[in-house]
Amino acid sequence: MRVAGREGCLACHCIAIITTTADDSVFISVMWLKSVLAGALLASATVLLVTPTSRNVNLELRCDTFHLQESKNGRCQDFVRIQRVKYCGSNIPVISTHNVTKLAITFHSNGRFNYPGFRCSLTASNPNMQHCVCGKQGGNGTDKAPWVAALVYANESQPFCTASIVRETWVLTSATCAARIKHNKDNYAVMVGVSQGRGGVRVPIRKVFLHPASLHGHPHTQANLALIHLKQPITFRSGEAQPVCLPLNPAHHRPASGSPGILVSGVKAVAMLVHPCTKDALPSLTGYTLILPSVSVGNAGQLAVDLLITNLPCEKVAVVHHPALYPLVGGNPYDPSNQEVTTSADLYLITSRSLAVLQIRSPLIKTERCDFLTELTAWCKAAGVREVVMLASCNAYERWDNNQMTGPQLRYLTARTPQQNTQDLRSAGALELEKRTDEQGVEQSFLSGAGFVKHFMDICDLPTTVLIKFVEEGDNTMDAVVLLNFLTTWKKLTEAKNTSWKMPFSWKNMFGRPTPREIY
């Protein structure tokens, strides 16, 4: 949109001529009219909108806010006239025209400024342009950018802005697009999974959060951002809708070579550009060993992973999000000077040792556990992971061996591992977990308090080793040290023996008085 022609004051009547091309948007409000007309206090003002393109253009006017003086005896003193029809009071105009070259809009004020006024948007579109998505004409379709969502009126499917899917219940857009929705969310919706020739799924909006520095949608601020929280989660499994790939490592934020990028805002003047992730956004894990804890009694496995991340050169490369994980977030537990946030599950890499470390800080929700472990296994195979090592703990009172006081405290379980791997485990001082006979006379491993170990071993078809430490309830930091000492000896993670481990910063607050009840 651009203002052209002339702006002149004709006594108490002013005219501004505005040209608009197909797929343009312009907001019209009382305040906007004043700025166009140099702030003159006028009884009447006319805005004449002209489309210089072909006649095959749709003009559509929508009003988010419309509250003028009510009519008296059928006459409007405070009104907006659109193509000879007057609108006043709360009679919201909804105008959609086709095959016209101009649209005249007149605003007449009662001069007392005692009503809120109106805020309307005018959109010009060309119905013959079928491939106009992702905020620019001829851009990428949503089948190539499944993270693109459309912001629409509640009962329509024509987008006035677009957004990026960042989580199952969150989309990111510009504050300029979201400002109109914030206090009127029931009249809008988000559409996801829209692709060529097929409709999408309409999702209602729960709440809109504008960036505090966005100046309520001002288009020329660097903080022109907004988050929209959805009432219902987006289904990702169909593949038609997916979250946008935003790698954590700044080195991977650069676009792939030759990538044109994706425009994700429908308002061209305030568009945001999102590039597809480069192929090395997450380094290849081909040949890597994945280390992860089972959330088990005493949390010895999780504590051992904390020690590993604190003492070895780990780089955080990804956040893992799944419905099976409780949504937790906090500060960096290993370095108080690092402002990076920590979530329910984070992935770290030690590239020099070909190790991937997945720290799981949340128990698994029982109804979602099977899906999580299945998808985790599929991801490991797709990423090229060579083997999986799980750190777990079991209740010490369930031990059945005859040398409980002085014998080895570690046990191992293996599945699909080479014979050499078993020999190395025994050489490092671990024993295979003793089997017990159940009521049907079948020998099987008994894992009391070990979390999802057995379930994972049944699902995962990669070579898997589980290190198990017998523990008692209480301070299990030394159990974690024992686990990590064995792991480093077995996998030769450090050069020195009997390493004195640095304790994570967050462990200082592990014990003490209970959390004040007032915070709940």
TrEMBL record:
Keywords: Chaperone, Proteasome. The keyword Chaperone applies. One of its GO terms (cellular component) is cytosol. Coiled coil: none annotated. The keyword Chaperone applies. Belongs to the PSMG2 family. This is Proteasome assembly chaperone 2.
